[in-house]
Amino acid sequence: MSSAHVTVNPAFVVGPVRRRLFGSFIEHIGRAVYGGIYEPDHPSADEEGFRQDVLEVAKELDLCGIRYPGGNFVSGYNWEDGVGPKEQRPVRRELAWHSTETNEVGLHEFASWVSKLGTDLMLAINLGTRGTAEAMELLEYTNGPAGSTLADRRVTNGAAEPFGVRTWFLGNEMDGRWQLGNRSADEYGALARRTALAMRQFDPDLELVACGSSHFRMKTFGEWERTVLSHTYEEVDYISCHAYYEEKNGDLRSFLASAANMDEYIEAVIATADHVKALKRSTKTLSISFDEWNVWYLQDGLRSEGFYRSEDILGSDWPVGPRVAEDIYSAADAVVVGSLLISLIKHADRITSACLSMLVNAMAPIRAERGGSVWRQTTFHPFALTSKWARGTALDVRVRCDDYDTEEYGSVPLVHAVATYDEEAGEYAVFVVNRRIDRPLELNLDVQHDGALSVIEAITLSDPDPYAKNTAEDPNRVLPQANDSAQVVDGGVTVTLPPVSWTVIRLAGDAQQPEARRS
Questions:
Q1: Fold (topology level) of 2-11+393-518
Q2: Among the options 39, 225, 247, 292, which is catalytic?
Q3: Active-site annotation holds for 207
Q4: Contact 432, 346 (CB under 8 A)
Q5: What confidence score (pLDDT) does residue 52 get?
Q6: Can you say whether the dihedral through the CA atoms of 248, 254, 258, 263 is positive or negative?
Q7: By three-state DSSP, how is residue 387 classified?
Q8: Which pLDDT belongs to residue 81?
Q9: What is the distance between the alpha carbons of residues 171 and 188, in angstroms, rounded to a whole number?
Q10: Which residues pair with 455 in a beta bridge?
Q11: Cα-atom radius of gyration of the chain, to the nearest Å?
């Protein structure tokens, strides 16, 4: 059995693990809304038509916020269509996903659902086919106190108090040729700056997110960020990142190394943002909002540098809630999702907000059938457990292990790991992925803690078949299991990691730590 060594020192601090890392995203795509969270005829539906069974499962993820309503959808969306009496709302041809939008669910309904979920609503605004004026109208309607025409319209529509939305996304993927109203970096940067300045006149404390390039492979990437931030650096709080990963052509070795690409992507965006900071002589350090990330099987649907349309939604019909991007995830997919979370936590000093894309049915950890059951996909579990146990501060761990060669990403370490330390609770959580596909690996943890350590628990997600999946018929095929191999040996901790596995090891310490310093 091969081995790896991970050193964990509570003094080597990356940054605080903010709850905003554990957000999600719901767009009007496929069955994410209609047939997902909303199904008035379902036996579990509440008085507003929302499925309570889906809601209860979503609560297990302990989400910090939901980005809404898009995504590609937002660039053709008129927010006014989704407010007021439902019977008076227009039915639209929705171009992003070639479907019919009934507008049964709009701002009020979704805000109510988010409140039931117990999290925060984050709104994207249409800077594709609309602009600054429409953004200001939406802001006033959403957040304005009663006494103005738009705020009073909101009151008439049933919300006496403002919704109080703090985080706003200034458009979506505006360099994508698939995006309605896509623009050049200069055009978008100027529009985003004007819009941000106007929104801050209404409320200077809003959190604003500028669009980064649509993904790392875009020809516009890098220069797009530089140009957009040259316009907006002082007016926004975040630049966005979007990334999706998949196993291509049976290349599991490369797929398991996807986080190496995410790390490179994050560090390139940080470097670009800091370059603009230097050019502007700014004292402000910009954060990253990784507001779309997941495993998504796009290979058969790639068009125009990454544009995806399912064959299910092309044609002459315009269905309501068609099946789009309903990937059924495997054990290997779950391991990659856990690994991507490790990368986000490793960059917790700069990534201060993130959204798993999406939440229900479309590329989602939760699946639901019309009139039927709800179940947790394999990817649900590493997200839920990381959201639960990644607390306190992220630590810069040192990993010593063998590398392996991948076709797509070159030489990559066999082990991917990060740790967090909750000083108040006196607990560590170590998150680790074994990328080896053929045999287990012995992990040796050297936790440089001033006092004795004990193992609270170790939980591993793996399967002898890395392509095993959870389905409606077998929803518990792949589940996290207790890893009883974890033990304290000579002051350190050892644990056996199965091949293609994700593991969290929770440790308790019995003494306080010295004041942390940056590594």
A1: Immunoglobulin-like (2.60.40)
A2: 292
A3: no
A4: no
A5: 98
A6: negative
A7: helix
A8: 98
A9: 9
A10: 507
A11: 23
* Cβ burial, residue 223 (10 Å; 0-12/13-18/19+): middle
Residue located via tokens 């960020």: 225
Rounded Cα gap, residues 54 and 352, in angstroms: 27
Active-site residue flag, 234: no
- State both tokens at 394: 């992220």
Reported in sequence order, the residue ranges of 211-260 that DSSP labels E, i.e. its strands, are 238-245
pLDDT at 512: 44
Which residues have C-beta within 8 Å of that of residue 240, sequence separation ≥ 6?
169, 209, 210, 211, 212, 288, 289, 290, 291, 292
The domain locations on the chain are 2-11+393-518, 18-389
Which amino acid is residue 243, in one-letter code? Answer: A
List alpha helices for 280-318, DSSP H.
none
Do residues 191 and 183 touch, judged by C-beta distance below 8 A? yes
- The tokens for 343 are 């990368």
> Given CA atoms 152, 153, 156, 159 in this order, what sign does their dihedral have?
negative
Question: Which parts of the chain register pLDDT below 70?
Answer: 299-316, 511-519
Q: For residue 299, what pLDDT is reported? A: 66
Q: How many residues does the chain have?
A: 519
Collect all residues with Cβ–Cβ distance below 8 Å to 52 and sequence separation of at least 6: 44, 45, 46
Domain 18-389: give its CATH architecture. Alpha-Beta Barrel (3.20)
pTM of the model: 0.95
Q: What integer pLDDT is reported at residue 309 of this predicted model?
A: 46
Burial of 113 (0-12, 13-18, 19+ CB in 10 A): buried
* Strand-strand pairing, 12-16 and 92-94: unpaired
> Which residue of the set 101, 109, 140, 173 is catalytic?
173
In Å, how far from its chain's centre is CA 352? 11
Q: DSSP for 128-143, please give it.
A: SS--HHHHHHHHHHHH
CB atoms within 10 A of CB 510: 11
CB atoms near residue 216 (< 10 Å): 19
Residue 76 DSSP label: G
Q: Are 356 and 377 in contact (CB under 8 A)?
A: no
Q: What's the CA gap between 244 and 340, in Å, rounded?
A: 10
Q: Which 8-state DSSP code applies to residue 282?
A: -
Instruction: Determine the 3-state secondary structure of 190 from DSSP.
Output: helix
Eight-class DSSP state of 55: H
Contact 94, 28 (CB under 8 A): yes
Task: Tell me the longest C-alpha to C-alpha distance in the chain.
Answer: 71
What's the distance, Cα to Cα, between the start and end of the chain in Å? 32
Are the C-beta atoms of residues 172 and 68 closer than 8 Å to each other?
no
